[in-house]
Amino acid sequence: MLCAVTVACATNEPSPPASAAGPALVGTEWKLVEFRSSDDSIGAIRPGVDEVYTLRLEPGGNAVMTLFCNRGTGQWKSPDSTAKMGSLTIEPGIRTLAACPPSPLERLGDDFAHVRTFVIADGKLHLNLKMSSGDYVWEPAK
Asked: Where is the DUF306 domain (predicted)?
């Protein structure tokens, strides 16, 4: 009888909310994990210990960026913003121009303009650049 009660309780538990599977784009903030080049000679490039790159996609289409020692803003739009994959455009706007130490990821601010699609898989956001020129991989910012 105890077994039957345990089974009954397990089957009556509420399902986890849809957001438990991971966020869509609207209102999310992400921290850069790596850039994956489609060129095998480049491979993956990860931020240094002191380098912080974030992307916040606000409701209403504002994008707020931390680009190592610089900050930036822009606009984003996606007809698929509530889905786990689809098209995405990011139009970089104003950006500070502090002289950061050299970084192989300093091109990120310019690369936002080349984002064409996104995929959210395994809790990570993959921003795919045009013409298969690479992917930026992000994890949720904490």
From this structure: 24-128
**C-beta of residue 113 within 8 angstroms of C-beta of residue 136:** no
Question: Is residue 117 one of the residues assigned to a domain?
Answer: yes
Q: Tokens 């509530």: give the residue.
A: 82
The residue with tokens 């538990």 is 13
Tell me if 42 is assigned to some domain: yes
| Residue 126 in domain | yes
Tokens 């916040």 — which residue?
A: 56
The H or E element spanning position 18 is: none
Task: Identify residue 58 by its one-letter amino acid code.
Answer: E
- DSSP bridge pairs for 35: 45, 136
Instruction: Give this prediction's pTM.
Output: 0.82
Number of domains in the chain: 1
Please write the tens of the pLDDT for every residue from 10-23.
444 433 333 444 57
Residue 82 in domain? yes
